[in-house]
Predict the structure.
Amino acid sequence: MNTDIPSWSGGRQNPAVSIKTIDTPLSGATLVADGYGGWTPSPWSTKADQDPGFDSYIVLSQPYGWDFGTNSTDNIAHVGGLTWNTGTDPLFSEIEVPAIDAYGRNVFKHEWGHGITSDYDAAGTAPKPMVDNHHPEDYVNCRTHKPYVLQDGSDANPIPNSIFNDSSGFTHDYYSGLTALKSSPTHCTGITRAAWASGGPVTKR
């Protein structure tokens, strides 16, 4: 975040990261159904552990529990991450630790991308319609009209113009207000400079 956000926002956003460790195991009171057959922490079930004054919360959870029926461990979270649409309230994402091992920082870009698109959409500071970051195949760059390479890539193997490439590609472009639906290829969507400059979920410096 300390590298990506300032770069993609033209230096308009400079996040500070604070980490809080909660050693108490999650209980039924701090988990909710995730809608995919699993269980996850939520903005409401973890309210007591949230320190006030933050723009974004990202909860890293260890999703394994003990299944007394089979006497074995079981992954109770059935998705790699989940972000709630909290409007203009602080962003809240849950990311399970195995997803970080599998996807690296791409999972953070994806989940935080859900948060910023819904926040700026609720505030009315980003162009409509809101970008759906689950469907990069529906978008092109609004200046070049080029579609995206539908591969994830990684730090070790960057793929130009792919989904998570830092300097070109789908995530870079919607974080920069440069995406467009294929059906309207000249109408730029995503988080524009004006949206970033409004503040939103990362406080203006």
